[in-house]
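queue> pop job 88
queue> type: inverse folding (structure -> sequence)
queue> payload:
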């Protein structure tokens, strides 16, 4: 494994994670020497200071041991972790710094503490193999249950999730899970797309575009279905040329920014856009505003998620809110209920909420769906 220069995680933390991963998968065994500071600095193409910080933290945590004059070695501590006698829950996220998942961490941590459990955190950094190793590691060290935000974009159960399901291990997904038999808590995604588009129609827009998560992205399709349903109800023709696909190889902000630059050159532009996610909407807004477009006068916008920075945009973003704090709280309660053998439905679907700000051309108060969860 190598340092990912595009990953915002500090290099010393990436080195720590790489070494821990190599210990867990057996590449590095108890007693193995891991190399000198100079060798590691050359291997990972980082400074000596970065290497020293990474190793210092791992020594402090008992993962490595330093022998004066001999070097740094794998400790026995990493392989002898056993928390099975303690009530603990593992939380596996795509990215601990993601604006949607950050409040989930806070709410899960608060709730599990109230319920008398400890919380262990892990970030997969968008790596499916790393995610599977983290799930396996948490089970091996004896966590009582798992809360998972998977990296997969097909939104069906991976082999590792299937194993949890078959063995009836207490888990719940907080990333969208299309399979109805699996444990999941989230919002009604299709309804969110419908509410966003319906609101734009209510403001008088008829040429409305949809900025999709990317070709093959199932969640993007589900939100687009809501968009199409709102158009159909008002007899507004669905026009495929107003469906725009994000580049999934880049971050949502970057792909939204790229789309903004392309959008300026489109001759037959829509009057309004429904965005798959706030991050892409923010990137788009930056690109078009810097080049002279006015929001909402030239283009109205509605996003999805209600991330914290959305309200601080140049034109504060109207959006569909996924209540991350509530999702985290419910996920924690569901896992604990399962651990303790209490009856619990396997899917908890919440209503989305329309948060109205300046970007759509309306300053009305926010509205919640009247549809029951």
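queue> result:
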């Amino acid at each position: 494994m190598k340092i990912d220069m595009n990953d915002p995680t500090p290099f010393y933390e990436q080195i720590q994670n790489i070494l821990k991963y190599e210990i867990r998968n057996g590449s590095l065994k108890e007693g193995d020497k891991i190399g000198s500071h100079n060798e590691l600095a050359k291997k990972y193409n980082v400074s000596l200071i970065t290497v020293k910080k990474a190793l210092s933290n791992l020594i402090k945590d008992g993962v490595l041991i330093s022998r004066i004059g001999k070097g740094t070695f794998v400790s026995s501590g990493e392989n002898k972790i056993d928390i099975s006698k303690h009530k603990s829950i593992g939380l596996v996220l795509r990215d601990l710094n993601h604006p949607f998942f950050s409040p989930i961490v806070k709410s899960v941590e608060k709730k599990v503490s109230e319920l008398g459990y400890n919380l262990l955190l892990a970030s997969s950094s968008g790596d499916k193999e790393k995610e599977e190793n983290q799930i396996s590691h948490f089970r091996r060290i004896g966590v009582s249950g798992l809360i998972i935000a998977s990296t997969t974009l097909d939104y069906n159960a991976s082999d590792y999730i299937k194993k949890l399901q078959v063995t009836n291990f207490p888990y719940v997904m907080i990333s969208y899970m299309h399979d109805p038999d699996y444990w999941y808590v989230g919002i009604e995604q299709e309804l969110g797309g419908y509410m966003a588009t319906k609101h734009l129609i209510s403001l008088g827009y008829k040429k409305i575009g949809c900025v999709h998560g990317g070709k093959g992205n199932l969640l993007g399709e589900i939100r687009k279905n809501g968009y199409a349903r709102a158009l159909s109800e008002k007899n507004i023709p669905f026009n495929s040329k107003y469906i725009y696909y994000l580049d999934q190889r880049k971050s949502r902000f970057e792909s939204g920014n790229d789309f903004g630059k392309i959008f300026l050159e489109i001759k037959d532009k829509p009057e309004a856009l429904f965005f798959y996610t706030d991050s892409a909407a923010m990137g788009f807004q930056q690109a078009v505003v810097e080049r002279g477009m006015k929001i909402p006068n030239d283009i109205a916008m509605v996003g999805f998620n209600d991330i914290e920075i959305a309200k601080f945009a140049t034109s504060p973003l109207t959006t569909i809110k996924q209540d991350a704090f509530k999702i985290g709280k419910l996920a924690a309660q569901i896992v604990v209920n399962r651990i303790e053998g209490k009856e619990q439905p396997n899917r908890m679907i919440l209503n989305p909420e329309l948060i109205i700000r300046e970007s759509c051309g309306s300053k009305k108060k926010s509205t919640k769906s009247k549809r029951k969860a």
